[in-house]
Write a structure and sequence with these properties.
Strand content of chain B: 15-25%
Structural class of chain A: alpha/beta
Number of strands of chain A: 5
Radius of gyration of chain A: 18 Å
Helix content of chain B: 40-55%
Number of helices of chain B: 18
CATH topology of chain A: Rossmann fold
CATH architecture of the largest domain in chain B: Orthogonal Bundle
Shape of chain B: globular
Distance between the termini of chain A: 53 Å
CATH class of the largest domain in chain B: Mainly Alpha
Radius of gyration of chain B: 22 Å
CATH topology of the largest domain in chain B: Cytochrome-c3 Hydrogenase, chain B
CATH class of chain A: Alpha Beta
Low-confidence stretches of chain B: none
Strand order of the largest sheet of chain A: 2-1-3-4-5
Number of strands of chain B: 14
Largest sheet of chain A: 5 strands, parallel
Number of domains of chain A: 1
Largest interface: A-B, 54 and 60 residues
Strand content of chain A: 5-15%
Structural class of chain B: alpha+beta
Shape of chain A: globular
Order of helices and strands of chain A: HHHEHEEHEHEH
Strand order of the largest sheet of chain B: 1-4-3-2
Low-confidence stretches of chain A: 11-37
Mean pLDDT of chain A: 81
Oligomer: heterodimer
Number of domains of chain B: 3
Number of helices of chain A: 7
CATH architecture of chain A: 3-Layer(aba) Sandwich
């Protein structure tokens, strides 16, 4: 233990490097030129804008999406960004089981997006209601309101998993 | 029958308001709620949980109401902190607080029909059938009239990656005169769902009520069930919970201080905070398998002994501690950032006290109230620490309270690791006594979290009341933002860092 403390005091080790991200979920974040950016190149010319809509999530999925923008995951290096307006969005990323109060707002956000548009349901709640399935105030997943192109499993999926799944879904949507 | 520190005081509906007013002078109103107990004794009940300042006791005032006479004199005019609780009871049970100053619904939006979801004879299907998405929403916002006053509607979908809610600002030029928030867009029917899941399966739901308070919610829930069943979990399980609650506080407080930088457009500060937060999240994942500390609490204890990984905790926290120290020095030296925080979003002690503020928001306004000290539970009784208060009640104070509490969490974790903790990780769940009830509570990163549970005649959940810190603190944002400029709203809002999902349920 003492050795650890001393090592920590004097060693210079980054908090969480790219290796750590890759270790968390395979070849996820990757180096520039690896599979991820190459795929994105083909589909969206290295520019993806995502509009995130919380449809009743517990907020864990949102924090993981927020983390994608931090200096450790830094998705903007791949040309991916979260946008403030659905008018600028290529992808709508839905979280939460779709509470009744948010159903209308989710639909409106979807309709406000330009074509082509891709819908991704992020997290177990958005997939089928998750732990909230069957509650009186939810519609048991995003598919009840918008046509879903792909799902990201997890409760919540971690940032690296979200990245990987977004790339996979975009690739298959481009086919 | 009841846990030792809970004292139930039965009152008539006529005496209830006066007694509540009397209690509110020297007690904190912790929570207030109703329960449909007709299957037990034919009555609805209203409970108001008070705790005396400086004593580990809960005085729970309660009254019975007959099904055909569900009205009583509102206590809100006398105890303003009750204002949302009473509106909630009106929506969910149809119990009318006569003379309540705000006639608007709170939890249920216009799409819901004429149903009272938490009545026991109302089924999920009944509620779903009542829903009509085309129904006109009769909600009205508080209007400010006068020359030059205009309204800014925002939400429910916001520009950032955050939760949904609607804010109606009445502004004069750049200055906000009044903010009327309309929340409960994420109302999911959580409390009703608890009733159908059974006590043991409620843990995973409690963990998902509010993302970054997962562990404090599941701890308070487990504690309520364990107290009801008369289970005393081992010192080792208690120590694990205590340590993990402090880890949750750490990543929240440090993350919140970083997020406040986003409120002032201070990108470097935000980035530094996010890096520190990320190393804490990665530690969470290594210790518990979940970045949000899920899956470790169970009824009767915990699933893992995080002390097995004490070396990892020590070495990671050493790094974060040093990083956090430099981070705070960096922020406090950044005049452009600090100038925006000082004097912004003032919440006076008087209003915080009257409206029932909790957590860092209350302590930054000079209210020395911390559930860890007021009602020692888990391992907190054997730890020495203070409730950290600031007097001014501005954004700066809320940041500094978080800083001191984060430093305090580091030392709590250190002293927990130094000791030995004996006992089983998890004890078998006892029987849930018919008609039993208990409170569970803890101090989460946003403030106090309370659960009150009651079992029905067959030992299944009759009522699970969730009271998150955000439910208490949301109404305070309107007071804090009064007189500030519109661009400071995100900053003031971030300084409270409230949960929508935890409030809307």
């Amino acid at each position: 233990m003492l050795k650890q403390i001393i090592l920590n005091l004097f060693g210079k080790k980054p908090a969480l490097g790219r290796d750590a991200i890759r270790a968390m979920s395979g070849d996820v974040a990757g180096e520039p030129g690896a599979s991820g950016p190459a795929r994105l190149d083909a589909v969206f010319k290295r520019s993806i804008r995502i509009r995130q809509v919380d449809a009743g999530s517990c907020n864990a999925c949102e924090w993981e999406c927020t983390a994608l923008g931090n200096p450790i995951y830094d998705v903007s290096r791949f040309g991916i960004d979260f946008t403030a307006s659905p008018r600028h969005a290529d992808v709508i990323l839905v979280t939460g089981p779709v509470s009744l109060g948010m159903a209308g707002a989710l639909k409106k956000t979807y309709l406000a997006m330009p074509e082509p548009k891709i819908v991704i349901a992020c997290g177990d709640c958005a997939k089928d209601g998750g732990v909230y399935r069957g509650a009186y105030g939810v519609l048991d997943g995003a598919a009840a309101v918008v046509p879903v192109d792909g799902y990201i499993p997890g409760c919540p999926p971690n940032p690296a998993e979200i990245m990987k799944c977004i790339m996979d879904i975009l690739e298959s949507a481009a086919k | 029958m009841h846990p030792e520190n809970e004292k139930y005081i039965e009152l008539s509906a006529a005496d209830f308001p006066r007694k509540c007013a009397e209690y509110s002078r020297r007690h904190f109103l912790r929570t207030m709620f109703a329960a449909d107990e007709r299957e037990l004794d034919g009555y609805f009940r209203v409970y108001a949980v008070f705790s005396p300042m400086g004593e580990d006791r809960f005085d729970i005032l309660t009254m019975k109401l007959r099904e055909d006479a569900l009205a009583y004199g509102s206590i809100t005019p006398l105890v303003p902190a009750a204002h949302w609780y009473e509106r909630e009871m009106r929506d969910m049970f149809g119990i009318i607080p006569e003379g309540h100053p705000d006639p608007r619904p709170l939890c249920l939006h216009g799409i819901y029909g004429d149903v009272y979801p938490l009545r026991r004879d109302v089924t999920t299907d009944d509620i779903k059938k009542s829903v009509d998405f085309s129904r006109e929403d009769g909600y009205f916002f508080m209007r400010v009239k006068g020359e030059g006053v205009y309204e800014i509607p925002v939400g429910p979908v916001h520009a950032g990656i955050i939760e949904p809610g609607h804010f109606r600002f009445s502004a004069v030029g750049e200055t906000i005169y009044h903010l009327d928030p309309r929340l409960f867009f994420t109302h999911k029917g959580t409390e009703k769902l608890f009733e159908s899941r059974g006590f043991e399966n409620g843990v995973e739901l409690a963990e998902r009520i509010s993302g970054v308070s997962s562990f404090s919610h599941s701890s308070a829930y487990c504690m309520a069930v364990e107290r009801m069943a008369g289970m005393d979990i081992s010192p080792r399980a208690k120590a694990v919970r205590t340590l993990v609650i402090e880890l949750e506080r750490l990543y929240n407080h440090i993350g919140d201080i970083g997020n406040m930088c986003a409120g002032t457009g201070f990108a470097l500060g935000y980035a530094k905070g996010a890096i520190l937060k990320e190393s804490l999240m990665a530690l969470n994942a290594r210790l518990t398998g979940s970045r949000y500390l899920r899956g470790i609490n169970v009824i009767g204890g915990v699933t893992r002994d995080v002390f097995d990984a004490a070396d990892d905790v020590i070495s990671t926290l050493d790094g974060v501690k040093t990083g956090f120290k430099h981070f705070m020095e960096f922020l406090l030296d950044s005049i452009s950032h600090i100038e925006r925080l000082e004097g912004t979003g003032l919440l006076s002690r008087e209003i915080a006290l009257k409206m029932g503020a909790t957590g860092p928001a209350a302590r930054a306004s000079g209210i020395s109230d911390d559930i860890r000290r007021a009602h020692p539970h888990l391992s907190y009784g054997s730890l020495i620490f203070e409730a950290h208060t600031y007097q001014k009640g501005d954004v700066y104070s809320r940041m500094m309270v978080r800083r001191e509490e984060a430093e305090c969490s580091f030392s709590i974790i250190d002293s927990l690791i130094e000791r030995r903790h004996e006992g089983e990780l998890r004890m078998p769940a006892g029987k849930f006594p018919a008609g039993g009830s208990a409170l569970g509570y803890t101090e989460g990163p946003r403030g106090s979290v309370f659960y009150w549970i009651k079992a029905s005649g067959d030992g299944s959940p009759l009522r699970v009341k969730v009271r998150s810190a955000s439910f208490c603190n949301w109404p305070l944002v309107s007071y804090a933002i009064h007189g500030n400029i519109v661009p400071d709203f995100p900053l003031v809002n971030k300084s409270f860092n409230l949960s929508y999902s935890g409030c809307d349920l």
